[in-house]
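Title: Comparing notes on inverse folding

I've been comparing how different people in this forum approach sequence design from structure. To keep things fair, I'm posting one structure and asking everyone to reply with a full sequence. Here's the target:
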């Protein structure tokens, strides 16, 4: 399939998942994850109207950002090392992987220095897999409360990664769990403003994520493809 065909395929599936769950297509946005593809393929995606681009390492994203930075909004998805924050703030509009206070502090500091703000998703390890980054559900509310001191961070939502499952249906409790955590946090009154966003769903499981309330899907392989090497 070429890009246009993949976009159409994904679009149909999202629409069907919306229909099954009584959601509006307009509630859901797509981050096109370009970490597996070249600059040329990334440019093609932006020109095709995929205006949110996701990368998970600054080293890999840099050349793309320098070439086509102005053509899209940029999303940082992966584990963010504190020493990379200075590269990311001011270039990436969204950070999906806020997972520790030292990172919150550094993001705030760098954002303040250039008089900007950063949209952040707090990453939660809902499944409890050892290999995954993110706060445990138990740590979430205290963390969110502590982040409130950093006024350059817009806490817009929660992010999670489900374990890879041969049967995507098996991811449902993870996505439902993230939605519940968001709703509980909003009801708790801890936050100055409610968090509306849920960044969840990847190539293997995005249809289930839509049914469970995702507002941002992070789609790599199924949408922009995966190049060898
Ligand atoms: C790579 C990656 C994705 C996209 O993965 P696909 O399965 O190719 O869609 C989404 N989110 C994060 C955090 C990633 O690292």
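Reply #1:
Here's my take.
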């Amino acid at each position: 399939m070429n890009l246009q065909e993949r976009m159409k395929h994904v679009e149909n599936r999202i629409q069907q998942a919306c229909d099954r769950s009584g959601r509006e297509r307009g509630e859901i946005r797509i981050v096109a994850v370009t970490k597996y593809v070249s600059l040329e393929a990334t440019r093609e995606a932006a020109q095709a109207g995929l205006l949110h681009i996701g990368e998970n390492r600054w080293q890999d994203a840099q050349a793309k950002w320098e070439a086509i930075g102005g053509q899209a909004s940029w999303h940082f998805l992966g584990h963010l090392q504190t020493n990379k924050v200075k590269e990311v703030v001011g270039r990436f509009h969204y950070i999906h992987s806020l997972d520790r206070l030292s990172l919150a502090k550094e993001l705030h500091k760098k954002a303040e220095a250039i008089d900007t703000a950063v949209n952040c998703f707090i990453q939660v390890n809902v499944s409890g897999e050892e290999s995954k980054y993110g706060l445990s559900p138990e740590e979430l509310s205290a963390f969110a409360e502590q982040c409130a001191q950093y006024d350059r961070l817009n806490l817009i939502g929660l992010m999670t990664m489900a374990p890879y499952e041969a049967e995507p249906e098996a991811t449902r409790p993870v996505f439902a769990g993230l939605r519940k955590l968001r709703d509980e946090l909003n009801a708790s009154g801890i936050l100055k403003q409610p968090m509306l966003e849920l960044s969840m769903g990847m190539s293997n499981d995005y249809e289930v994520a839509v049914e469970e309330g995702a507002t941002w899907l992070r789609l790599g392989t199924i949408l922009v493809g995966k190049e060898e090497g």
